[in-house]
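Narrative summary of target 7.
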Amino acid sequence: MRRVFLIFLALLISLNAAFAVDFDNTNLRKKISQMLIVGFNGTKLTKDSVLYDDIVNERISGVIIFSNNPNDPKDIKNVQNPKQLKKLISDINALSKVKLFISIDQEGGNISRLPSSRGFKVKTPTHKELGDSQDEMNTYLASKKIAQTLSELGFNMNFAPCVDLSLNPNSTIIAKLGRSFSDNPQTVIKHANAYILAHNQYNIMTVLKHFPGHGSAASDTHKGFADSSELWQDVELEPYQALISSGLAQNIMVSHIYNKKFDDKYPASLSSKTVNDLLKKKLGFSGLIIIDDLQMGAIADNFTFEEAVVSAINAGCDIIILGNNLSYDKNLAQKFNDVVFNAVKDGKISPKRIDEAYLKIMKRKQNL
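Modeled conformation, tokenized:
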């Protein structure tokens, strides 16, 4: 009888252990999910949509909205008109158990996902035009117009302002698109201040970009490898240092720029030397660190998906953006979760790193 009891007790302990592991696994997956902002196809939320399934099963931390498919400008991705977009965002928020980041690239000028041709009244000057005006009030008013519109639509995060210095006039992605306030760091700091303060008024989180500076590089990381090693200057860090010191740097986006001055192996987004050592330790940034779209050519053409995701997280990035726009994968959220989950189980990512990112994200979400 005693032997039967001991066998039963051993089985009970074994079952409890199994349930404990399963609980831990579920908890780990939910934490990992909070590290992903993903793009999606569609202008409305329906029960048979991939996004609906991802939200219900808590696979994502937020979404990024795009107006068009970049491979086909005539193909509307998420944005038809203000009424449609507001309902889409409202439906997304209503479905989620956990607050979501509802994000967009709405810098103003040439970088706009809300076209006037579809009824949006949010057209503003470029960063360059605002900087050239030498009037910070102009920047504040333009930013206020953007922030008010985003707030009314239901957004809570804008991937802006761009605090790159316009050091290379041949930069196809910065200077030639008017995305920099100036080549002078003090001008950039003043106008970024005004831009951020206006967004704060409407509770729209801002994200400084593109760390550690994209304005000196001629190449575009969307299209492929971009090396700023020879042209990058220390002055490109000044806007970040000033805005971190003033407390206005809430979130920072790390670019895919390669700079051997910091790391001779990895681009900034995958580099612990750039993120952990430079941004977190040297500059003292403790806010959310967000990686630029991991599907950009600079990463996708040179690293496997697993290598990029694992390296970015280990480098110190808290949120991964997968725009699902340059290339589309309906199972992307699950794929991301599986890769990170398995990397933790295999010892490639420490649970402590996941917990660190999770706590920072949830703390930020308390203010949404």
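The domain at 24-365 is CATH 3.20.20.300 (TIM Barrel).
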